[in-house]
Amino acid sequence: MAKDIEEVVDGEIIEGEVVDHNQKSELIIIAPHPDDEIIGTYKYLTDKKYTPIIIYSADLSAERKESTLKLKEFVNCRVQLFQMSIPVPLVQKENTFLFPDPSYELHPSHRIWGTMGEQLARAGYDVIFYSTNMNAPYIHEVKNPDEKRKLLEDVYPDQKSLWEFDHKYFLFEGHCKWVF
Ligand SMILES: [Zn+2]
Known about the structure:
Elements: H1 2-8, E1 27-31, H2 36-45, E2 53-57, H3 62-68, E3 79-83, E4 96-100, H4 108-122, E5 126-130, E6 140-141, H5 145-155, H6 161-164, H7 168-171, E7 172-173, E8 175-176
Parallel strand pairs: 1-2, 1-4, 2-3, 4-5
Antiparallel strand pairs: 5-8, 6-7
The structure holds zinc ion.
The site of zinc ion has 6 residues, from loops.
């Protein structure tokens, strides 16, 4: 599997270990923008059980891509990729995907990625949706909001204005699965 990923995302692996042959399943976090992975999937990102693959939109500025890679200093992640869609070798039934929720998210880019997630979910893949807008009915309180805030500030100090006056971004998060 590792070889396939290298072939498909040629030149796009910025840094990090390539996918382990022996690992049966991968957790794949789709974060259209840097900070979505912390705001929406902090619980998974910081769970020692996982070493997620994180996929960001390819159309980010070089500067934002660069700052995103700082995340590795703080959490375990296998690799951070910048893509326009999910690399084919990663589309496996044994993998779990975390996508922005296409019905509760408002940002167009979140909706586009969320729709890809919906297609995978409808095709029988293991998809969990998250919301960064905190308007979804399944939002719950984060157990350690101070740590979540600290991680946001450590990795994305430039985005601080987003959560500085609106604490919902580190106080809450939510995940759901769709039943068909
Ligand atoms: Zn976003």
